[in-house]
## 1
Amino acid sequence: MGTLKDLKPGQKGCVHGITVDGLMRRKLMDMGVTPGVEIEVNKMAPLGDPIEIRLRGYSLSLRKEDAQNILIVS
Amino acid sequence: MKLKRISEPTTESVVGSSVKEDDMKYNVALVGNPNSGKTTLFNCLTGSNLYVGNWPGVTVEKKEGLIKNTKENINLVDLPGIYSLAPYSMDEIVSRNYILDEKPDLIINIIDASNIERNLYLTTQLMELGRPILGVLNMMDVVEKKGILLDLAELEKAFGFPFVKISAQKETGIEELIREVENHLKESQLIIYPNVFPDPIKEPLERFNDDLMKNHPEILADTPAAFRAVKLAEKDDELMRQFADDQELIGLIDSVRDEISEFSGQDVDSTIADYRYRYITEMVKKASHHTKEDQISFQDRLDKILMNRFAALPIFFLIMFIIYHVSITLVGDVSIGLIESLINNVIIVFVNHVLSAVGAADWLNSLINDGIIAGVGAVLTFIPQLFVLFIFISLLEDSGYMSRVAFMMDRVFRRFGLSGKSFIPLVVGLGCSVPGLMATRTLENERERKLTAVVTPFVSCGAKMPVYVLMASVFFSAYQSVMVFGLYLVSLVTVFISAFILSKTWFKGARSSYLLELPPYRIPTLKNTMTQVWERIKEFFVRAGTIIFAASVVLWFLQSFTLSLNMVTTADESILADLGRLIAPIFTPLGFGNWVASVSILSGMAAKEMIISTMSVLLSGAQGSFTLSVSHLFTQASAFSFMVFVLLASPCMAAVATMKKELGSWRDFLFALAYQMGIAYLIAFITYQFLSRILG
């Protein structure tokens, strides 16, 4: 099991859990990052960070430091 | 599915029945995610019957309008675009409180059908508020192109309220939507919607609610049971602050939380969000049928170019430069001359003809020519350029490029204590600081939000542009657009340096955060762009006719009379000149310590367009053209320093008032004002001292 940060553009995985508490956790869940959902990394920003992911049929962008807190099973 | 309905014990129904049917005014709230097409639908439903005002007591801009093409009297209220009803941002709190307190007769929940799962998340929260809901599936044209069929009956069965399909952009399904709204207005009962949670979560919540009813009937007494139980179980911040001391209540909450966590193996917040999505995923699966593989190749191809590692930043700066070059230089070259000649050769000739025909007195002649026409006309001259600038800003906002720039810039912005999301208020601020300041509300972190609000006015608003255009054309005619673009760079540098310093000092602890939806690229529609541009331009016309008109009259009076109220022979003896000379020494170190420039800066506090109007009024008695008179007031160095000062100094009154609202505390507000004035003075001082030594 790895984190979302480890996925390369084009790779997919399923969310296993979020390892951070507080506002960011709640925000991620509101945006649909919940256990079991499939996430594909679409691309990185031109400067390498943040990353763009696709889930539930839409695109969301987040920083790598936050992606690191999302556990993924490939 | 049959819905249980409980009649509401408020006086509303009693009042309603005593009033004649046709006098009934209904309130309908428009709620939905950002980017779901809310504004487009709002404009579509209300047409030109739109006005903007303020909530009583709440510092949020509300948009209201009467729905057209209906016999009923239906007032549509546009609430801020939100992803959830959790009270993390001001927008969310405002929407939640509006629905709970004002009890709208109907909620129109607009749902982007091409992104249906995420959009329905908010819906499951709205359902708990117990008001009648009408689901509006927007962007059906996009969905159908993707080959997805949505079964409305299945959706209604799953969520307990009816749905209609529309495309707000293509204006399809609007008639039907209005008929549906009419049909559902009369249901003023409290509605119990299907519970989205499975029994092991639902039952503890129900038992918890029964305990609440028994022991704490006063908590959220007015609200539906489902909402109350979930909010308390989630330990809603706002509620917890009120009941922090109630040990018995806390005990109740903790026991229901334990029960839910034990079942799910996660904490309560996650469980509730998780099961909302589980319900949605299951129901959407039942209601939708895919007939084609979905493809997003056009979007990706466009992104490959615009977000390319090497090309992205150059493309962005090129776009910004083109915007300013086209609106300032290309349009300005044609329009300024045209409008000036229209004013001088047509309007003034006509007015003077009338004035001499009726035998008007000298002072009236002077008031109309040197006061009103000079003042108001100076502003109107720049309308075509602002018009073009606003078209570009609106295109940036509507196309989806703006979010991409936020995505692209986050890494840079982060270094300065901001986030990529701060970019959006800054770009909106290019049009006007007031909506720019309001756009800071989408930032969740309080300190980061305030920090962005303090630096947003450093971005030059549209009303300041005429100053640069005038000064650049008089003093730097050979390289106008470079000069003006250079000013925008000064403003950008000031934003970043200020953010960096303030995030380490006054707003210490502002940890920036970033989570942003990237909406698909869309081709902006002509109608939508024009509506937005007209809204903004109208503001300028209104101000030209009111505040600038009035101020021009006052200025004319002050510059036409001496302190002993005799008419002056030259403006130098006037009250205004005395006043200007009083404050002029402040600006001497900046190079423009003359009374005309000082008075202009002062009157610019009312509205930034006044700076040009003031100069125009004050110099109208002078020999030669306006531009010639201006050229005598400044040197190249002091002209640039003047532009820098105008650019950075505190914004107009409207923006200052908005800044106070957004910052909340007087302490932060006064600091922000002092900081903005201080920085403006300092940088203008350095600019002048430096340039005057090179340019002489």
## 2
Amino acid sequence: MKSVEHMARQCAGCIHFDNDSRTLEALIPGLSSLGSGDGSARGDDGYCIRHGRFTGARAVCAAFRARPGG
Amino acid sequence: MTDRAHGVSRGTLATAATYMGWRELWRKEDWWAIWLGLGIVVAAYVLFAHGSSLKWIAVTPAKWTTLDQLAQHFVDNALRYVAQLVLWIVIFSVALTALGHKARDFVPAFILLYLLSVVTFAIGQWVQAAKYNLEPPLVALVLGLLLANLVRLPRWLDAGFRVEFYIKTSIVLLGATLPFTLIMWAGPTAIFQASIVSIVTFLAIFLVGRRLGLDRRLLATLGVGGAVCGVSAAIAIAGAVGAKKEDASIAITNVIAWAIVMIFVLPFAAHVLNLSGGVAGAWIGTSEFADAAGLAAVQTYSDMMSHDLTIGGTSDQAVWAFTLMKVVGRDVWIGIWAFLLAFVATTRWEAVETGRKPQLAEIWWRFPKFVLGFVAASLLVTAVTHSYSYGDFTKVVSPALVAPIKDMRTWTFIFCFFSIGLTTRFRELASAGVRPALAFAVGVVINVILGFVLSTIVFAPYWENLVR
């Protein structure tokens, strides 16, 4: 079982990470043309502005910075 | 603070990131497609069971020869069209609001989309339409592309042009018109054929790309985009392997470019080759990249079939074979591809900064849930109609229960086809890149040829004999 501390440091709680579907559709040209940010296939993946990469909400990395109030 | 390289502000990114969990039931369009699609099917059945029918509100333009006839049809049925428009607005608004869209943007955008769809549907019902290749999917797509690329429509209108939401709802409704026994009978063949083509296509893109010196994460995104389910696959794999934003953009540009080309090429090629409905549907299902583009292609072929009696099989067979191949055969594997590639990426490839351990649960998280609605709709209608004889089914059940569901499905198809055109702005797409485009093109050629051989020779007896 994962510790609360580990979960608290996952990308979902990081200021660099966003998995909002509207943000992702604005970020990737064509995503809403033959696809969607709202589909199940994406899971809860999002975009990390720090590394310029897509990643999962459960990923962890050394550059974690807690979201204000998170 | 702004990240210039990625074009988004840190303020934008500071919105609440979330785990999906049970929230998926009302925060993902796959589930909303199920709720809306099954809701329509259940409503149709309740009305049918009480001696009524959904057909009053499932109005569609009738065949016409003169403009006077067409005008008279709209005068006679104006109230039905208004009621249908209100129904669509209400159910789609509820869903899209839950998904985080603004109803005040959606409603005017959808009214525009509906009016364009009525015009397109009416054009397709002109008795001379086939002579000029005015199939509704092609008309909707071309008009949409012209509007999006020659007239700069306000960006907020995109709230009404939800390609994937409309096509997923269509596929759930399509399940109601496809016998469950057929899914059981042809499903394994579809899965087998689709698996062969998907694996070969992925390996072709990946290996050619490696020879061209391209990055593995880009190639994984590009390869699964071509081999499984287009844009949805590309974004899923980008997240699974930790691809860069540019990788996803390149993959999506390649998928969109080829998918649009194939909407025109595949139905006309199938027509020239005089392929029967089932065989053509299987070929298109194996060779198109996105569900929406594939359904546009196969619906175009269905429309061609209804005007050309030299083509064998039925238009239903074309749509059924396509759906079995694309949805059952290919789409459902996206979670497995994501899991396997995430595993390979973290254990074999060079490390990236964002670490994640692949989890088996990912296969379910990424499963395209609308497929469950498609199967449930098929099971439901098959269960409530199995006691009818073939004669009663044709005379009673089909016109009062199945036909109105099919008409509602045709509307959602047209909303989708128009939305493809209206949201495809070529000037905004990222560059496809010369080497990625070359690798992807090799995959496309192999995919089309292999899909053709498997559909027309190896598994042809299955696809030619899809019957109720």
